[in-house]
Amino acid sequence: MSRLTVPKTYKLYIGGAFPRSESGRVREVLGADGEFLANAAVASRKDARDAVVAARGGHAKWAGATAYNRGQVLYRIAEVLEGRRAQFVEEIRAQQGVSAAVAGAQVDEAIDRWVWYAGWTDKYSQVAGGANPVAGPFFNLSVPEPTGLVAVVAPQEDALLGLVSAIAPILVSGNSVVVLPSEAYPLSAISLAEVLATSDVPAGVVNILTGPVADVAPWLASHADVNALDLAGAGAYDWPAFEAAAADTLKRVVRPGGPGAVAPSLERILAFTEMKTVWHTQSLR
Amino acid sequence: MTGTSIEAPHERALALLGGQPDDATLRRYLHGLPGVDAVGLEARAADLGTRSIKTTSKAWALDTIVKLIDLTTLEGADTPGKVRSLTAKALAPDPGDRQTPRTAAVCVYGDMVGIAVESLGAAHGDPDDGLVAVAAVATAFPSGRASLEIKLADTRDAVAAGADEIDMVIDRGAFLSGRYGQVFDEIVAVKDACRRADGTSASLKVILETGELMSYDNVRRASWLSILAGGDFIKTSTGKVAPAATLPVTLLMLEVVRDWHTATGGRIGVKPAGGIRTSKDAIKYLVTVAETVGEDWLQPHLFRFGASSLLNDVLLQRQKLRTGHYSGPDYVTID
Fold first, then answer.
1. In chain A, where are the structural domains located?
2. What's the pLDDT tens digit per position in A48-83?
3. CATH class of segment(s) A26-281
4. Whole-model pTM?
5. How far is B240 from chain A (nearest CA, A)?
6. A241 in contact with B at a CB cutoff of 8 Å?
7. HEC secondary structure over B121-155
8. What are phi and psi of A177, to 5 degrees?
9. Which of A45, A219, A222, A250 to mutate to test the interface with B (most CBs of B within 10 A)?
């Protein structure tokens, strides 16, 4: 007698929990061979609003953690991802219709990217900041600080690597993110959420909304409580409209192909930081 | 709220009770009230909370909520500066939109009444005239654990400083021990202390502190007791005890107010306070009021929200309706 199949429900990831879409909508995700894989939640603008509230709530704890601690947490994501490698390989293979070897290479690359960025948490501020020479009796110091809450349209062409490459550098400095993962391959994003939820990433720091980018992104772009908009994967959409929607508020916008694109780079970490400069009087001798 | 006569309700109460308000008479009356169907009450409240209020109705609801707020600061760390910024916010809740209505009142500790009156200046007065009233908590708020002389002095002090409304706490210890006569007499005495030299009187809100009353039956009894003793408003909580205001408790108190109105024609106000932080929650209360006692009650002399953080959330929602995009906490004041 064969066992009953236990299909997985892919829901959203908001505030450290896995709620269904407020709209109640789901869509069928089909494999490369047209076979039914799973139902994925279709996020609405209300979900986007809830995610922003959750991300704002999670921001202070993440930004307030020591750089060393953030590095440990990011490294832990790589560890947990490594342990679930087989699941991710299988999911990518089914969704993208690639060979197990190609899918495996994508997962390995994603794991390595977490490790690479984990190492940067306690180093990027020395590289980007430092003491400035000034013509006066002052210490003058510049340090990069997280921009705050970043809304991200992740690269659309693959299931996992693009998403990881987009959000890992944003998390390095202590930002929280609301991310719209690949519209065509949404399943790996929610499996990644399960990894994040068990890697000591504080609730609300990463929020993942699967669904139509064109419907949800404008609401995130115009939201006054979003501090930066990363359009890394929005090239195929009407991204100038997203940028225009963001123009009503003081918001940093990184265009498709902007600083460092999504290849691993220090520039991408610094694209989501703000420089704080402090003047401090020298003691009088 | 000014100039209400205190004798009339007292006589009505004596007629209803059929005797002097001593422990035995009150006990006979209050324990003769029908018991509360807790399951039915909570189901009714949950049902009223499911209404969908959108677009123009939502805009109306948001403005109504602002007009019904007692903007409150009741912290040990309050300073004159904090009270001045509170009154400034009550007068112009959203400086970016001058169409925003003023709140009904500011609610402060007794020693801050003078500061609040002074900083409101010409804008101090009746919320019906578009002005802002000053409410003061008194009677050893929030515990109520002081002698009657202290409580009355506390009240007179706030009234003399210019308070339009007094929020008193009942002695929950006495109430729960069944010393109803003592609670009744205290409310009557505080009501008397609300009188000003010119014969007018400050409005009296009676705080039941429902979080400490243990049962819905007790909430109903305390509501009746407060109304019989002459309270102008019944208020759920001090905000210092959890749970504070809940929708079922407020519904229950509104039902008492409705029954009193049916029996005597008198109109008593209700003020849920504490724990109402979002517009969504506040709109549920508006629906409950309209469905229980009628839309007449949605005016500052008959319904209030005791709140501080609620106002910011309402302002964010108003900005969303005005601009079409979601707003954020950077666009309202930090209180």
1. 26-281
2. 999 999 999 999 999 999 999 999 999 999 999 999
3. alpha beta
4. 0.91
5. 24
6. no
7. HHHECCHHHCCEEEEEECCCCCCCCCCHHHHHHHH
8. -130, 150
9. A222
